[in-house]
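One example copied in:
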Amino acid sequence: MAKEPPEKTPDGHFVVIGGRRWRATDPDIPEDVAARLRRHLMAGRRGVRDAGDGAAERVARGRVHRAKVALGERGVPWWEESAEARRRRWEEGLARLDADHPE
């Protein structure tokens, strides 16, 4: 059975999961870029789960944070940024994640 997408607020800025609002991913991010950013996000989350020490956990949490910022889910709200600033955010974020975590 396919999982239904989360409910969004009328303005599209947030998704509602379990009654809690979470900032939505920037809808202007091209799907191929968003998919790569989500892969970094999930790898970071697995890294947090599997971290054997504080240093490994900090690295993994940093990866999660950078991916969420690049996706527009943290930092300056994407709907308050110009199109150029939004594009720069995801391009620079992905470049750094790819450089720091080559796969």
The mean pLDDT is 94. Residues 46 and 71 are 18 Å apart (CA to CA). The radius of gyration is 14 Å.
